[in-house]
Recover the amino acids of this structure.
């Protein structure tokens, strides 16, 4: 099986519950289409360098 890596950004104005719900939707989409999640690394809120 091929290995892929993904990263996605959420709006900082969202609540923690909304962040968890959206993350769950992304994870659900991956598994629904036959993907397998090996590791999840949540970084939390961070300042971007731009």
């Amino acid at each position: 099986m091929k290995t892929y890596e993904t990263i996605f950004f959420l709006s900082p104005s969202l609540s923690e519950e909304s962040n968890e719900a959206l993350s769950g939707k992304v994870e659900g989409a991956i598994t629904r289409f036959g993907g397998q999640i090996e590791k999840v690394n949540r970084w939390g809120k961070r300042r971007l360098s731009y």
Observations:
- Residues 14 and 20 are 10 Å apart (CA to CA).
- The chain is about 35% helix and 0% strand.
- Residues 16-32 form the longest helix (17 residues).
- The chain has a mean pLDDT of 92.
